[in-house]
């Protein structure tokens, strides 16, 4: 299934959820339910923006973007994190005002039932999208799914607070729960923005992928063939690997090409869609334009 299909489902689910939560707020007058509805409104905006970014990321390479447009996905993740942070800030403002001037809540059972239904929709869609994100290696899907999971936590906390208000008579409990949940959402927002920045800064592939590359190269290492300057990066759903492959200077061009092609086939078969660059060099020689590795000490 394509990423856009997941996002279309997310957008439709977000629209249903916000209607349920707005109705719950109107019936109860709870600031917790209002903040929950506001957070869901951000879901709709974020899902729409994610669709736009995925459309851009899916464009083929061109003269100005020879490596494609897949990094557009990181903008979606970052913007979604900012949206979540904005929603949390608005919740904090509204909760603080209600803490200063508490108000009773009404029709609690009906309101809680509506929020519970909305939470179930969000939870199911989020779990489904996380599986899709893992399969497709999409940060956009992961960001949207974690946004929905943050909404699930919001709703769970709000429901607990609203249920306890009429039982205890503590009108301040409703806004306090809203504040606590808003702080949790802020943490989620920070993580999304941080991951977006890492992607835009060409962060290396995860350790599990690095280990896989090393294991795939190991059978080809010998007295004649060595590999170094193995570097990796990720751009959206695509993975890129570059390296130097050193061979004896007396090998013919045909021998060197056959060996390099064998390594390429092994890596590309094991890691479909990988962008691979192998620079062949004689043993003992290095490329003059090679940049100093960030792990090497300063001269």
The CATH homologous superfamily of the largest domain is named: Cation efflux protein transmembrane domain
User: Would you identify the CATH architecture of the largest domain?
Assistant: Up-down Bundle
Largest sheet: 3 strands, mixed
CATH class of the largest domain: Mainly Alpha
Number of helices: 8
Overall pLDDT metric: 81
| Order of neighbouring strands in the sheet with most strands | 1-2-3
Number of strands: 3
Give me the strand/helix succession: HHHHHHHEEHE
Distance between the termini: 50 Å
Unreliable segments of 5+ consecutive residues: 291-299
Structural class: mainly alpha
Our estimate of the beta-strand percent is: 5-15%
Domains, number? 2
Helix percentage range: 55-70%
By CATH, the topology of the largest domain is Alpha-lytic protease prodomain-like
Structure description:
There is one protein chain. The protein is mainly alpha-helical and 299 residues long. The chain has two domains: 3-200, Cation efflux protein transmembrane domain (Alpha-lytic protease prodomain-like, Up-down Bundle); 207-282, Alpha-Beta Plaits. It is built from eight helices and three strands; from the N terminus they run αααααααββαβ. The protein has helices at residues 3-28, 31-57, 72-100, 108-136, 139-168, 173-200, 207-217, 253-270; strands at 226-235, 238-247, 275-282. Strands 1-2-3 form a three-stranded mixed beta sheet, with helices on one face. β2, α8 (253-270) and β3 (275-282) form a beta-alpha-beta unit. The longest helix has 30 residues, at 139-168. The protein is elongated. Mean pLDDT is 81; it is low at 291-299.
